[in-house]
Design a protein that fits this description.
heterodimer, A: alpha+beta, Uridine Diphospho-n-acetylenolpyruvylglucosamine Reductase, domain 2, Uridine Diphospho-n-acetylenolpyruvylglucosamine Reductase, domain 3, Alpha-Beta Plaits, seven-stranded antiparallel β-sheet, five-stranded antiparallel β-sheet, 18 strands, B: alpha+beta, four-stranded antiparallel β-sheet, 14 helices, about 30% helix, Oxid_FAD_bind_N (chain A)
Chain lengths: ~475, ~400
């Protein structure tokens, strides 16, 4: 049906389905094991909805100890596992397979401890990203990484994918805000890695686990860095005649020693769609816009925005509009944060996630237009400009398989172009199944083999989220080789 | 005296490693040699030096990025960045004053030891700024991880694994960092005469304000000098005046608050970064204890009279401890005090015999040690790279 293959399910495991469900039910009683087809359907896809696979079963442990027993049991039985947070992965990171058990963390969503003097919070990993900030907002603190899906996505998923967001230019991504985890191994051990001190002892396994796409084990608890909220924040909107001027302005702001909390970019098509949806006062006449947000006291914000405004003017900004009220600021961000949803109302799309050196921005935007024009597809560009993380939305029609195939090919070509100019395939969404086959564009065989060896150090039998990250053929060849 | 091999290029590094594998003869990895006293002493007959792999490869201020070969002096990178108004924000720790070594700290040594300074408390460690590496594994294979863009989740984050790995997973040949603009100016608020627990509580309170404190240290009183609780602010001149006033107000410090000018502030934080000026006699053994900041004073209290000197950086979360030398360098009480506070301790200065006998790095739980060993072996199956540097083999 669609372009990305999944391995054939193991008939031996399918045949043992009842036995495996009984085994899981002995560990996680009652509603914690989901076996009916109706209920399993809720887990058959994630936010890469073009791909669906019905899992063998779903298990929702309530405690770390249950999770440890589940992993040990399934590993002993040789059953593949797919860990799942909220299923918001755009890369198919949580896509099940027919012979795999989905292990969800949704029943572990408590705040365990808030420690303001040490600026940390300890949570169970099933809590939502926004739930973390909500738990400390009344104290004037927040958790910095803010992926667009933050209302739904879980900390477990954020750690798996090393999620970013709009504000990571200043505050970093998940790995920079993660101090410790409780981690369950495939052997069923419960391991504390890091804690609430800075710089954990020994080899940085915490850094390795963060962003491992759920392929090493299961994270059930996390200790996170929380930060005091800024005194205030204010976005400003600049319109530019074209993306060249906007791109040059981003480089000039950073080069001038100003690091805003966020710099967001939209092209003409994205401006129109977002404005229709959010009525944020985006400049429709502009060829590109930047949303720049700075933080501090009112006077500090004024001064920074004056400096940034002067730079924008010399780079040809045709309009500049500061949010004068909290409501105006919210409207500006509403347009940006609802961009993907607004786009979804008018068309199906695939969202690419390559990162490029920001100096190559005009060149890559021209390439994207060229690629999509040649395929007869429309594309809208919305992205985190400060860090070069692109999000071209390639529009297609779900009811037309040819247009999906074309969109997937165009998406691949865009990512190849990102790697060519010194960037990478994915800035924050992860590889999942979506970019699996492209890994050999960014990495050579030696590098991929080394990463697969690391995978095997945690998971000798390739049971944890096995069909992700690595090109399928390569990983199957690795398994054959290891068996020899 | 060991043989030192200093290859001119990556091919030379590969060859050296492959020879070591063939001979089953471990090699020590070295950059500028300024931190040779950190870690367990090397037993290797040969040393592979990266000091001839030098040069800045990329410096792009508008992209906040710099790449350099592993043997490049840190000072050269910092000078080139400063010329463009930027810096390595994590404030690389210079080990020379602590060890009394000479020579030039290199980018490779910095990465291998994850050597951050006082600003780490706000902006993160060296490992947080590190966004790309090239290295040659113990298989003699060149691999890259990360790249030159600051947002990158393509493949496993071997970049983070390399930082602080003390040369045990590969010989670094290139490193790429995210940079940040230099601050226009700086000042430090100093409150005198606070007891440890009061001073550290003030540091923690300051870190909970929105004023972006970039250094938070408490220096206990010594030799008739009163204790100093120090908070650094760096920013545009106009912001600083406001922030210093606002911070002083929120602190409600029991003592008077003095403001240091930029020059005095820079000198103070250089000393705090290098640690040695506050650690007394050069013959003392030195520990670094990492702990949640508010529990720092508990560690010190537990050690009591055993301490020759101590001070707190990172809001209280990094305790530098000096003790008179002894057979086990005080490992038992230091580790017990650190464990009680749910932290960990590293023996950063002691003679070779002591560092061979005592665990330099915090012993890990069995499960964690197994995972670390399994991961290390995927990079260096024979164990030729800095074998025994982190843990007794």
């Amino acid at each position: 049906m669609t372009g990305i293959a999944m391995p054939q399910p193991d008939p031996g495991i399918l045949a043992r389905r009842d036995e495996i469900i009984a085994g899981l039910s002995r560990i996680v009683p009652g509603e914690g094991v989901i076996s009916s087809e109706d209920e399993r359907r809720a887990f058959e896809t994630d936010a890469l909805t073009a791909y669906r696979r019905m899992p063998l079963a779903v298990v929702l442990p309530s405690t770390t100890e249950q999770a440890a027993e589940v992993l040990a049991y399934l590993a002993r039985e040789g059953v593949p596992m797919v860990p799942r947070g909220a299923g918001t992965s755009l890369a198919g990171g949580a896509l099940p397979q027919e012979d795999a058990v989905v292990i969800g963390v949704s029943k572990m969503a408590q705040v365990l401890d808030v420690d303001l003097p040490n600026r940390t919070i300890r949570v169970q990993s099933g809590i939502t990203n926004l739930g973390v900030s909500a738990a400390i907002a009344h104290e004037g603190f927040f958790y910095a990484p803010d992926p667009s899906s933050q209302l739904a996505c879980t900390i477990a998923g954020n750690i798996s994918m090393n999620s970013g967001g709009a504000h990571c230019l200043k505050y970093g991504v998940t790995t920079n805000n993660l101090l410790g985890v409780k981690f369950v191994t495939l052997q069923g051990e419960i391991v504390e890695i890091g804690g609430d001190a800075m710089d954990a002892a020994g080899l940085d396994l915490l850094g390795l686990i963060c962003g491992s796409e759920g392929q090493f084990g299961l994270v059930t608890e996390a200790t996170l860095r929380i930060l005091p909220m800024a005194e205030g924040a204010r976005p400003i909107l600049f319109g530019f005649p074209s993306s060249e001027e906007a791109g040059a302005c981003v480089a000039a702001v950073l080069g001038a020693g100003i690091v805003p909390v966020a710099i967001e970019f939209m092209d003409k098509i994205a401006i129109d769609i977002c404005e229709d949806f959010a009525h944020a006062g985006y400049p429709r006449e502009a060829g590109a816009l930047l949303i720049v947000e700075v933080e501090g006291s009112p006077a500090e914000i004024d001064e920074q925005l004056a400096r940034i405004g002067a730079i924008a003017e010399t780079h040809g900004a045709t309009s500049a509009r500061q949010a004068k009220t909290a409501a105006e600021a919210a409207a500006i961000w509403k347009g940006r944060k609802s961009a993907f949803g607004a786009m979804g109302r008018i068309s199906d799309y695939i969202c690419m996630d390559g990162t490029i050196p920001t100096g190559r921005l005009p060149e890559i935007l021209a390439r994207i237009t060229e690629i999509c024009d040649a395929a007869g597809l429309k594309v809208a560009n919305i992205f985190h400009a400060g860090d070069g993380n692109l999000h071209p939305l390639v529009l297609y029609d779900m009811n037309d398989p040819v247009s999906l195939a074309k969109a997937e090919i165009a998406g691949e070509d865009i990512l190849r172009a990102c790697v060519e100019v010194g960037g990478c395939l994915t800035g924050e969404h992860g590889v999942g199944i979506e970019k699996r086959e492209l890994m050999s564009v960014q990495f050579n065989a030696v590098e991929l083999a080394q990463m697969m060896r690391v995978k095997r150090a945690f998971d000798p039998d390739w049971l944890m989220n096995p069909s992700k990250v690595f090109p399928l053929g390569l990983r199957q060849a690795e398994t054959l080789q290891a068996a020899e | 005296m060991t043989d030192v091999i200093a290859p001119l290029d990556e091919l030379g590094v590969e060859t050296t490693i492959l020879e070591a594998v063939a001979d089953n003869a471990p090699i020590a990895i070295q950059g500028g040699g300024t931190r040779v006293g950190l870690g367990r002493p090397s037993q290797a007959a040969k040393t592979l030096s990266t000091k001839r792999l030098t040069g800045i490869i990329l410096l792009e201020p508008s992209e906040l990025v710099v790449s350099a070969r592993a043997g490049t002096p840190v000072a050269e990178v910092e000078a080139a960045l400063a010329e463009k108004g930027q810096r390595l924000a994590f404030e690389p720790f210079d080990a020379r004053p602590l060890y009394g070594t000479t020579g030039e700290p290199t980018i490779g040594g910095l990465v291998a030891t994850n050597a951050s300074g006082p600003r780490r408390v706000l902006v993160g460690a060296a490992r947080d700024a590190l966004i790309g590496v090239r290295m040659i594994t113990g298989r003699g294979e060149t691999i890259r991880s990360g790249g030159r863009v600051m947002k990158n989740v393509t493949g496993y984050d071997i970049v983070k694994l390399a930082a602080g790995s003390h040369g045990t997973i590969g010989v670094l040949t290139e490193a790429t960092f995210k940079t940040l603009p230099l601050a226009e100016t700086e000042t430090t608020l100093v409150v005198e005469g606070l007891a440890d627990e009061v001073g550290v509580a003030a540091l923690c309170a300051a870190m909970g304000t929105p004023f972006e404190v970039t250094g938070a240290a408490h220096l206990p009183g010594r030799d008739g000098q009163p204790a100093r609780t120090c908070l650094r602010l760096e920013n545009f001149e106009s912001h600083l005046r406001y922030r210093a006033g606002a911070l002083a107000k929120t602190l409600q410090a029991p003592g008077a608050v003095t403001l240091l000018d930029a020059e005095a502030s820079r000198a103070l934080w250089r000393d705090i970064r290098d640690a040695a000026p506050f650690l007394g006699d050069t013959g003392n053994v030195v520990w670094r204890v990492s702990v949640a900041p508010s529990r720092g004073p508990d560690v010190v209290a537990a050690l009591g009279d055993r301490l020759a000197a101590h001070f707190y950086d990172w809001s209280g979360g990094l305790i530098w401890i000096a003790m008179a030398p002894s057979d086990d360098a005080g490992a038992a009480p230091v580790r017990a005090a650190a464990a009680e506070a749910r932290g960990h301790a590293t023996l950063v200065r002691a003679d070779d015999a002591t560092r061979a006998a005592v665990d330099v790095f915090q012993p890990e739980s069995l499960a964690l040690a197994r995972l670390s060993r399994a991961v290390t072996e995927t990079f260096d199956p024979v164990g030729v790279l800095n074998a025994g540097r982190m843990h007794a083999s």
